[in-house]
Amino acid sequence: MIRTRQRFSSEFKREAVSLVVDQSYSLAEAGRSLGIRGNLIGRWKRQLEGDEAGAFPGKGKLTPDQQRIRDLEAENRRLKMEKDILKKATAIYGAYSSYRKSHEISIYRRAQEDLADSSHV
Questions:
Q1: Number of structural domains, the chain?
Q2: Is the domain of 91 the same as that of 121?
Q3: What is the average pLDDT score of the chain?
Q4: How far is CA 77 from the centre of its chain?
Q5: Which of 24, 38, 76, 109 has a CA 20 to 30 Å removed from the CA of 6?
Q6: How far apart are CA 71 and CA 84, in angstroms?
Q7: Is there a single domain that holds both residue 71 and residue 115?
Q8: 32, 59, 86: which is the final residue of a domain?
Q9: Contact yes or no for 63/57 (Cβ under 8 A)
Q10: What distance in Å separates the CA atoms of residue 8 and residue 36, rounded to the nearest whole number?
Q11: How far apart are CA 12 and CA 9, in angstroms?
Q12: Distance CA 50, CA 56 (A)
């Protein structure tokens, strides 16, 4: 038997929590009277206690502040990734550049030695 996930309105959740808080029902009693599990009401109660204003925003919609935070966190992750890429590219280029310089110096020295040898002839 496949069960679909039930969705409850924030008003329903607040009323269920009210049964426990205001009317002194136990979680199990409130759950039985509403046809749901008592531990679900317990979770809703903790959510309300933790953040009264932000509890149960509904259907994944974020408040403008929450959306701003999410956007800033995404931008922060992207910038960190770009910084890491640039660090690696700089390290690779630096290694190549120092190799190239040392190679150019050795060529220059050999050329000087060749010129010095040819002038003694």
A1: 2
A2: yes
A3: 82
A4: 7
A5: 24
A6: 20
A7: yes
A8: 59
A9: yes
A10: 11
A11: 5
A12: 11
Q: Is the pLDDT of residue 120 over 60?
A: no
Q: Residues 53-95: pLDDT tens digits?
A: 566 766 566 778 888 988 899 999 999 999 999 988 888 877 7
pLDDT at 107 over 60: yes
Q: What is the pLDDT of residue 58?
A: 60
Length of the chain: 121
25 within some domain: yes
Return the HEC string of 24-35.
CCCHHHHHHHHC
110 with 66, same domain: the answer is: yes
Question: Could you list the residue range(s) of the whole structural domain that residue 121 is in?
Answer: 62-121
Question: Does residue 115 surpass a pLDDT of 70?
Answer: yes
3 in any annotated domain: no
User: Within 13 Å of residue 44, how many CA atoms lie on the same side as its CB?
Assistant: 27
35-49 average pLDDT score: 90
Closest CA to 16 of 1, 117, 37: 37
- Give a yes or no: residue 1 inside a domain: no
- Do 70 and 108 share a domain, yes or no? yes
Provide the residue type at 15 as one letter. E
